[in-house]
Design a protein that fits this description.
Blueprint (H helix, E strand, L loop, with lengths): L3 E5 L2 E9 L9 E6 L2 E7 L10 H17 L3 H14 L3 H10 L3
Parallel strand pairs: 2-4
Antiparallel strand pairs: 1-2, 3-4
Helix pairs in contact: 1-2, 1-3, 2-3
Amino acid sequence: MLRKQYPCPLNPDIQVLELPFGEDASGLAFLVNGGGSAVIVVDSNIRSEAWFTESHMTAIFAHELGHYHMGESEKAAERWAIDHCDEIAEEAAAILLRERGIV
């Protein structure tokens, strides 16, 4: 039950798929990477959360792109995401990532 498909705003070569995750899902997004292409899959339910902002989505995209560039390490992906958000002047997303405390 696909809700949305679009190019990632931070890297248009990577597609984003938004679909509802089940109640037992342990995260909000993940990266599927293989064969020279990648897709970011995001729980579409996130948009109905009271705390949600587009800066949250930018932080999610940046973190998943961090995995694309840095591999499976959460710390390396998060560091890349923070640095990238700083580079592209997405200050609110960078703050959200820093507040998570992964790095």
